[in-house]
Amino acid sequence: xxxxxxxxxxxxxxxxxxxxxxxxxxxxxxxxxxxxxxxxxxxxxxxxxxxxxxxxxxxxxxxxxxxxxxxxxxxxxxxxxxxxxxxxxxxxxxxxxxxxxxxxxxxxxxxxxxxxxxxxxxxx
Length: 124
Prior knowledge:
single chain; 124 residues; mainly beta; four-stranded antiparallel sheet; globular
């Protein structure tokens, strides 16, 4: 059974940093693209960042470019999202996801496996 577990969320002041982790189990994800999405109250789930199966390519939403960094450690079957210079508008539940292809996609429907989410709250 495939399982993705996010951790690292919490409450932080504007300008602060958090590092999210996504631990995968149940299968090997080496070679498959992974992504981070977020969903704020009353809004649709949106793409935040993605990383290719090789780890050599990354993609970011314009709203987080230059502030967030996605990475992966296939030896640990874990993906990370380093979030710096956080803003109140970054407040959301953050989800990690994996798809069955090796290139980055940005739509919710293109991902096959999802975690349960971790809350990130940024106070002003």
